[in-house]
Structures are given as structure tokens and as C-alpha cells.
UniProtKB/TrEMBL annotation:
Domain Beta-galactosidase galactose-binding residues, every copy: 528-583
Official protein name in the record: Beta-galactosidase
Reaction equations catalysed: Hydrolysis of terminal non-reducing beta-D-galactose residues in beta-D-galactosides
EC numbers: 3.2.1.23
Gene Ontology terms: biological process: carbohydrate metabolic process
PANTHER family to which the protein is assigned, alphabetical: BETA-GALACTOSIDASE RELATED
Lineage: Bacteria, Bacillati, Actinomycetota, Actinomycetes, Micrococcales
Keywords: Glycosidase, Hydrolase
Source organism per UniProt: Arthrobacter glacialis
InterPro entries in UniProt: B-gal_1-like, BetaGal1-like_ABD1, BetaGal_gal-bd, Galactose-bd-like_sf, GH, Gly_Hdrlase_35_cat, Glyco_hydro_35_CS, Glycoside_Hdrlase_35
Family according to the record: Belongs to the glycosyl hydrolase 35 family.
All copies of domain Beta-galactosidase 1-like first all-beta, residue ranges: 374-484
Amino acid sequence: MAPALSYEDRKLFKNGQPHRIIAGAIHYFRIHPDQWQDRIDRLVAMGVNTLDTYIAWNFHQPRADAAPDFTGWKDIARFVTLAGDAGLDVIVRPGPYICAEWDNGGFPSWAISNPDMVLRSSDPLFTGVVEEWFDALLPVIAPLQACHGGPVVAVQIENEYGSYGDDKEYLRWNRKALVDRGITETLFTADGGTDYFLDGGALPDTWATATLGSRGDEADAIWERRRPGEPFFNVEFWNGWFDHWGEPHHTRAAVDAADEVKKILDLDGSVCLYMAHGGTNFGLSSGANHDGAIQPTITSYDSDAPIAEDGRLTEKFHAMREAFYASSGRELTPIPVHLNTPAGVVPACTFTLTRGTALLDFVRAIRPVHSIKPLSFEKLGLDRGLVHYSAKAVLPSGEGTIKVRELHDRAYVWVDGAYAGVLTDANCETGLKVNGGGGLAQLEILVENQGRINYGPRFGEGKGILDGVLINQRYVFHWEQRPINLEKPLAELLQVGVAEDCSDNPESPTFTGAAAAPADAELGAGYFHGELHIDEPADTYLALPGFGKGLVWINGFLLGRFWEIGPQVTLYVPGPLLKAGVNKVTVLELEHGGIHAELHENPILGVEGVTYVEDLS
């Protein structure tokens, strides 16, 4: 059976009839599954005919010792079927690399931790692990194709490869891997809208699509010259942008974004809004970029999308809807009342948070792993979370400097139980000044993985201390490290370090020098607990005034990261995570704690007004 989509003379057809793709990207892994249907309904109301989604490998198979999971929140077949039942076609983008500001670009760290592996290439070490993933994934996707009566009309080969490498043999392998496993609908590549990106990422006999946020008319001219006969499809129109911690909150005017979409539609091109609805980087799933120093992405993935993180229909939604309806000659119809009516939220309130186990008591209680040089997260078998490093170090008389070579990403340092400061990948080799009296001192370094790189040549880098620790120019050897997997069930984590006498454990260290408790108490780091009483579950927005940096759980669900440097102030709490009556709130604070939490009735994602305009030059 012929694919549903075909093209000729720069015209796109579906089942032989003239067609234009008007799509919106929504990621099932960023939306609570109880809200999938609602977000799909809102996408339909915007006037699109297609839903686009990535598939995140590490969401389905975070551990090497477990088979990929396609149930519950990870039931991609259910998500795709819901879209089809709503009348939408579906575009699937299985990568395996997806970028998406998602941790490690979608890869499980265990799959690409072999230092001999050449990532995103035809290296058999790399293609071998991807084949195993595709062997599990594609039998789930293949039956959902249009040729079998399903909604899937197109599948992407890799993702923006022209921004990364030039191994065409790998791209051809990727295409063949899809075909050999039953993908028969239209295949396509996606790359930035210039000659440069096409040179690296496009294949001569496969539909090439574009990713860009402006100058679509210029990109269309490039396609007409470089890809004769192919219809222009902007498969990622960046109508908004994501935020990094410590940077401004990005917004883009609705009229500006809609005008750029109209340029593409006026040229008979197809378009997909990235994102139509962004959702949330729940837990520790947000990725990071790197530009001289790590740039971790915030928990919210609202991305100033037409459908906001909480589902609200924004000004941009209405502007895009008008453009989409006008391009097809349709008259605007009323939006269903239940979608256009503001949803109820939990009333604003404040509730107390009380101090629990101190941070150092918690991390010191983990069973240690011994080594001569510090071990990375990967060598410890840890994907996300924290590693506590400790060693006896000889300090010089007078002033000395603690340096870390190849620190990824952020380290809190104690000397003899006294807090010494913070090191990051930007200042780790400059180091921290300490005053020593000579002799041995207990050195402790707690390293946080702030999100694995998801884009660029540093993709695939490890986490933790990748080289070593120096006092002035001298290495410190013989380390203990305690890997802290913060994605374990919260009940298990809360038992660690609670009223434990580590002296009975022969593998536990003896921490000498100043007592840890006073320094830790002053820092205010550790667990905090509170109870939230509500009458009826609904969406809400959680703020932690007075707290510094850390993680928060709601009823045992790891909601995400917070950080006082912003721009994000409130964390979106979907209603399905709450229950009538008592709700447990747990905070793990890494820097300094507060005394209460707040619920707001509206999100606070930062100061608006920083407009992102994509530059093709």
C-alpha cells in the first residue's frame, strides 16, 4: 500500500488529494496522562490537522537491566490513538536523538556511556544499542500507521543531524532501521533552514523538512533551489522559546509569531508549531545547554506556547487559530465552552514546612564506593541525582586552594564539616580558597547533576568529577563516593540518615574535625516537610519563598527542580497529583531553607518581554 502522504512539483498530497500539514507539537512525556485528552482537544480547537511528538528513549528505559516500558504514562500507543480518535494525523519522531531540551537528548546515560563509542554515527557500538531500542519501540509504532488504519502518516529519521555531524552512512542506516522494522509511511529528515544544515543532515532521496523560527520565505527559496520538487514543510516553527535557570524568561508576541506562520502558509507550505503545548519537565528530566558554562533548563516547558503549561488558551492560541482557519478558507467556529472556560484552581494559601533530616546526615548515610581517583556518575551506575565524595586531604599551612578538574556540574564543598562554598564547571579550576593548619582534613564534595547536555558537540558528556581534585597543584587520592538516586521512591529516600548510628557500619567513614551539625544547620540544607489541606483537587502553582535550590515532591511524586535565581518562581502542580484532604509536600533543599510554601492561583514564570527571534545568518 502506498504511503498516505506523497508529493510532486512542490505540492503535497494525502491519499492523492492536495494537502497541507498544519500541526502542533505535544509531548506525552511532559503531560500527566490524565490530561492527555484535554490537551489533544485543545490542539484540535486551534484548527490543526496533525499532532507531532518525539519519543524519549530514557523515559521508557531508564535502566539497562529492565526492558522498555510502554504502559501507563509511557503508553505511547494510547497517546497516538487518542490523537487519531480526535481526527488528527500523527507525526512520530523516534530519534533516537531528540534534543527537545530533554535530559541527554532522550538517551539513557547507560546506553552511551562507553567511552569508545562514537555517538550519533555509524559506529557499530552506537548503532548496536539503538537497534535494540528500535527492536522494542517500532513494533509499537508500526501498527499505528495509516496503512494499517492508524493515524501515523510520517516518521522522522534522526533529528537535526546537520547541526551535529556529516555521517551520511549513519543517516542511511537510521532510515533502513526504520524500514526494516515495518515503517512504510513517509520518512523525512529535519534540519535548520540553510544550505549549511542541509549539507550535513539531508539525504538525496528522502523528504527534507526545515526547523526555524523566522524567515520562512527565505528558507522556502533555499528549498526550491536545493530540493526541487519537494514541498516546503517547517516541521519546527519556534513560536516561543524555553528558559535556562538564571536567564530571562522568553516570550514572543502573538502577532509576530502568527505573521511568520502566515508567510509560510501564503507560500503553500506546511507548518508545525514547536511547541503547541509545551508541558512540564517533571522530576529530573530537563536537559541543559552549554555556552562557556552549563545552562540548565528550568522545570517549566511552557515555552510561551499557544496552549500554556496549564492548558490555558493564550492570545497566541487565538492568533494561530485565525491564521490556520484563514489559510484553508474556513470560517471560525466557536471554541467548545468547556475548553474556553477558565478551569478551577486551588485557592491561594500558605502552609508551614518543618525541617527534617539534615543534608549531610542524609548523604553521609549512603553506603560508600571506594576508589583511588573520584568516580563519575557513569562509573557509579548513576544517571541523575547527587554524588557525595569524601577523602582525607593534606592541607598546606596557611592558605590553600581546592580545585576540581572536569567538574560536571555544581559542587558544595565542606572542610572538616565547615561549609567552604560552591564550585561550578565555570570556576572549578580557579577553585576555593581555604585556610589550613597543615595535616589531614576531611574534604567533602557534594556534586549535583543539573541535567545532561541535550544539544551541540558536548552532547554525551559525563557527570560528576571526571578527572580529579587538587589541593593547590597536588592531587587528592583515595576517595569514598556515595551515589544518591533521587528518583527512587520517596519513602525509601526518607529512611536514609534518619536516626542512624553510622559507627556500626564498618564501611561508613569517621568524619573528624568540626562537627557537621552546626555548619549544616547554618546552611539550612536538608529535607523539609509539610501538609497541604484542600477541599477539591485542581491545578495549582507552588512557590517556595526563602528556599534556595532543590527538589520538591507532591504526594511522593517528584515534581521538579526549583532555584531562587529564577526566572521560574512557581512550579505547576497538575490537579491529578492532588487529592481531597491531606497532601504531603516534601522538599530537599541543597542551600538554605525557608519556613513555608505558597500556593498561587496563577503561574509566575519570570519577567516577560524578552522576545526570541531566530537568526538564520
